[in-house]
Design brief:
5-stranded antiparallel sheet; Beta-lactamase; alpha+beta; 19 helices; single chain; 23 strands; Penicillin-binding protein 2a (Domain 2)
Length: 581
């Protein structure tokens, strides 16, 4: 009996040891197993595993709209066709002729030679065709062919072709923005790619039909630009006309709301198609309105006049002798196009007298002139939300020569881009404030669809309202019969503006046959706060701003007013009188 109890007791002890041993091995196995799962599947080193591999799930970029909701850029889905040989062979067991049937369907629908299909089928997981057409994808999916795998991706499309190309820019093959808005706002537009685990076969090929999603993709945010597509069409048509008419090297034009700083249109010629950017030269793709430097010439005289009137060193009716068109000053001759004698200050601006403008500047003094050049934003970027903007050139006062006071007031020794030029004129148009030009109106949050408006810096006052009103009236005379730009005048509307004709510097000297013709002008109207700048580079044979650029301004402004349904101001006044009666 005692021996029997001892045997049972030893047997229980053995069972207990065996049980604990099994538990211990079980726990150890579980730890190892879950560690392997974590290392190889959940969080594999460098994105790879023995059986699975991490693969990015493509995501559509946000859509780009104009201010009225018209699509300017969008991502459209497309599919690439792969063949899963394992599934084809599995179907072959049920239907022995299936592989041949599948090949015939692919040849018929995709119009790929049979020999090429046969060669591809020798691979474990072949790519049959990248970027199927809509018709091809529809035909294949309707056939419901086992073993066909469709991998989605996205392609950037610009429905307008060349329309607003220098604003929009384009993307690379990886979907990343490379130019224009696509680059500047890439972080908003690109979204976040998803991640999935895709099974690998023994040779390391991916089997996309067997996958597990770890994180879902988050589409990019949609953005709305300030531009009006209709105005953009108008601007592009008009600058193309002058480009060909005068055999110009290039043409740029900008339309801006002079109160808000919103860019309503911006265009350059030459242009390019963002759907096929590689077919065009880097020069054609350059946004010249923000990247190209030029001397503004006479359009810069508004800064000199504004500073002198604001500082009360002159008044519009003061008389200044203009030396009959030729004046020897600071060891060189300064000339006017015409032989002007005594002119009022208002007439000096109206007729664009170089001599009269320099005499005004000398009354003002170098320090004050430089101070106002800085106030008007020259010598630094406008901070437009587009890539590639240059700072321009405004040398510090201590680097001015004795000659500079005779050059800077008339737009020489100063380098600007077109945006800086239009920003300066906006000060006069809006009553004295320096605006912030911008192209983004706002964007939408994906989840809430809440619209987030663009917010810039607060506009800074540069000159008084009184000075602006004086200059606005004077600049209206520029477009009159006695001014330099009667071809910019639109009957029934009060157009204010300024011409510019600047010699280009070639090899360190002013050229005698290369010029930049420009005009910048505006209409003060509560429903049409439009300021337009036109710059024509190297027009031939005519090169004066009043003859080349002013008519383009007129056409752009007139067609824009028709589009916005803005009646002539005289008509509005007569209508008010009739209503009162």
């Amino acid at each position: 009996m005692i021996r029997l109890k001892q045997e049972y007791s030893e047997k229980d002890l053995l069972n207990k040891r065996l049980f604990f041993t099994q538990i211990t091995f079980g726990l150890m196995f579980s730890i190892v197993f879950f560690s392997l799962v974590k290392v190889q599947i959940i969080n594999p080193p460098e994105g790879k595993t023995g059986q699975y591999e991490k693969v990015e799930i493509p995501v559509p970029r946000g859509t780009i709209y104009d201010r009225n909701g018209k699509i300017l850029a969008m991502s459209v889905p497309y599919y690439s066709l792969y063949i899963d040989s394992w599934k084809v062979n599995h179907q072959k067991k049920k239907e022995p002729s299936y592989p041949e049937k599948l090949k015939e369907e692919l040849v018929a629908i995709l119009r790929i030679p049979k020999a090429e299909i046969e060669k591809k089928f020798q691979q474990r997981y072949p790519l049959i065709k990248r970027e199927l057409s809509i018709e091809e994808y529809k035909a294949l999916t309707e056939k419901n062919l086992p073993g066909t795998v469709f991998l989605p991706s996205y392609k950037r499309i610009y429905p307008g072709g060349t329309l607003a190309c220098h604003i929009l820019g384009f993307t690379g093959t990886d979907g990343y923005g490379l130019e224009g808005v696509e680059l500047y706002y890439n972080t908003i537009l690109q979204g976040e790619k998803g991640i999935s685990l895709v099974l690998k076969d023994g040779t390391g090929d991916l089997i996309y039909s067997v996958e597990k999603k770890l994180s879902l993709p988050r589409p990019g945010k949609d953005i709305y630009l300030t531009i009006d597509t209709n105005l953009q069409y108008i601007v592009e048509e008009e600058i193309e006309n002058v480009y060909h008419k005068y055999n110009a090297a290039s043409v740029s034009a900008i339309v801006i709301d002079y109160y808000t700083g919103e860019i309503l249109a911006l265009a350059n010629i030459p242009e390019y198609d963002p759907n096929n950017p590689g077919k065009f030269s880097p020069s054609d793709r350059r946004n010249r309105a923000v990247t190209d430097l030029f001397e503004p010439g006479s359009t810069f005289k508004i800064v000199t006049a504004a500073a002198a009137i604001e500082e009360k060193v002159i008044s519009p009716d003061d008389i200044i002798y203009c030396e009959n068109g030729k004046w020897f000053i600071r060891n060189h001759y300064l000339r006017d196009v015409h032989q002007y004698g005594a002119l009022k200050v208002s007439e000096i601006i109206e007729k664009s007298s170089n001599i009269g403008t320099v005499k005004i500047a000398m009354k003002l003094g170098e320090e004050k002139l430089y101070e106002y050049c800085k106030k008007f934003g020259f010598g630094k970027p406008t901070e437009i939300d587009l890539p590639g903007e240059i700072s321009g050139i405004l040398r510090p006062l201590n680097m001015w020569s004795s000659y500079s006071i005779t050059a800077v007031p008339i737009g020489q020794e100063v380098g600007i881009n077109a945006l800086q030029g239009i920003k300066a004129m906006a000060v006069i148009a809006n009553g004295g404030y320096l605006i912030q030009p911008h192209i983004l109106k706002g964007f939408k949050e994906n989840k809430s669809e809440k619209f987030i408006s663009w917010k810039g810096q607060e506009n800074q006052r540069v000159i008084s309202q009184d000075t602006c009103e004086i200059l606005t009236k004077i600049l209206q005379e520029v477009t009159g019969q006695g001014g330099t730009a009667p071809l910019a005048n639109i009957p029934g509307y009060n157009i204010s503006g300024k011409t510019g004709t600047a010699q280009k510097i070639v090899n360190g000297h002013y050229s005698k046959d290369r010029f930049v013709a420009s005009f910048v002008g505006f209409l003060q109207h509560k429903d049409a706060r439009m300021l337009v700048l036109v710059k024509v580079d190297e027009p031939k044979p005519i090169y004066y701003g009043g003859l080349v650029a002013a008519p383009v301004f007129k056409n752009i402004m007139w067609r824009s007013l028709q589009h916005l349904n803005i009646p002539p101001e005289l008509f509005e006044e007569e209508h008010k009188l009739v209503m009162r009666k």
